[in-house]
Fold this sequence. Notes:
Blueprint: H1 2-19, E1 34-37, E2 45-49, E3 54-58, H2 64-72, E4 74-77, E5 82-85, E6 90-93, H3 102-105, H4 122-130, E7 139-141, H5 153-169, E8 175-180, H6 183-193, H7 195-201, E9 202-208, H8 216-225, E10 249-250, E11 253-254, H9 261-276, E12 284-291, E13 293-300, E14 320-326, H10 332-336, E15 344-349, H11 359-368, E16 378-379, E17 384-398, E18 401-414, E19 430-439, E20 445-459, E21 462-475
Parallel strand pairs: 1-7, 1-8, 8-9, 9-12, 12-15
Antiparallel strand pairs: 2-3, 2-6, 4-5, 10-11, 13-14, 16-17, 17-18, 18-21, 19-20, 20-21
Amino acid sequence: MVMLLEDIVESVELWLKLIRKKPQPYVDPDLDPVLLVPGIAGSILKAVDDKGREERVWVRILSADYKCRTKLWSLFDPSTGKTVSLDPKSNLSVPEDRDGLYAIDILDPDLVIGRDCVYYFHDMIVEMIKWGFQEGKTLFGFGYDFRQSNRCQETLELLAAKMETVFTASGGKKLTIITHSMGGLLVKCFMCLHSDIFEKYVKSWIAIAAPFQGAPGYVTSTFVNGMSFVEGWEQNFFISKWSMHQLVKYDGVDIPLPFNLEILKWANETRKVLSSAKLPPQVKFYNVYGTNLETPHSVCYGSEGAPVTDLQQLPSLMANYVCVDGDGTVPVESAKVDGLNAEARVGIPGEHRGILCDRHLFRILKHWLDAGDPDPFYNPLNDYVILPTLFEIERHQEKGFQVTSLKEEWEIIGKDQDDQVTGAADRKPLVSSISVSNVGDEKSMREEARATVIVHPRGEGRQHVELNAVSVTANV
């Protein structure tokens, strides 16, 4: 009976697909191609065994912690600079479906309830398609094995091949790269080590929440004390926080984590590469960073009176953080110091991954990409958006007077540096008034107008503005 019901459901679904007429999405053939590059943990990873069988190991809900321990954990090989899976019978691969977008869109496509917790570039992809971008023609993705070094030759070769594919598929147009988080470091390494290829194919690069000078507090806390990729009830389905530091031993073998001097040597060389990167003169660079969240900058274990004497104690110690402004993961001072000649650097109040879904970010990208219809409410010079929320006007006669009243309200979304000093809730509304009168000769009319403007600070770069005005006209 169950099988019969499933067959009926499948038949109905197939029939509905055949009769349903889907509107054709708007496509703008004049758009330059865009390549989306994710950061750490932002690509779907599949494990392929020695018989060619595949299974998704990142991200997944069921058995997530077990698969992380058995398939994702790896060892660093200092002779090659590659990260090698601990399981010798399986290798990791990244799916190339939808021209690379599948791997960076929804990280667990099977999840139904709470699906937004595994959204990565999903909202941005949906938005860009509305602007006229087309998958496989002007919109592409580059998923990669994020366990590897940012200067891993294999990853850089795959990125070079992807750039050539995008260039060819779009009819020879140079592309814009949009990176998130560690993806910015990957592209910066590529720009330094393969500057000729970068210059050949790239028109502009937009870096979002990139840790150009690192995320020291976040990284230290992750590998020493563990971390959760999501909050609330959803974390019960994902990798255990403690899996980040309890794999000191694997299958009876000691694993030198997190203090591996070979990795430190490799990382120092990578830092030299990043520091020497130069932006080609004809490539435009834009930097977007998150603000308004307490972000770990440094971590302290132990104290002057009770110093740490055994490094094995670190995973069980409580860390003390020194926090600065940032997106909760990357400090502002790290994200802003890109070392490049930027066309613009814009701060957006938001969380490290959540910033990819921010409407303010979409308006900025739309302007920089010259996509879709012009936004009449966006000011690119000062980076703010004015949204009218109310407009009322009334006119009436009153004892020989012509009275006109006007009420208008706006929402201003932009950078508000004062929020970093004092909270919006602690600030009082700003009130300003103005009055104008005009008195003519004996045969003319007398006019008076008064207006009051009230600005309500709301925090996170938002302000609500009210305008109340009254005009009175009378015959003298």
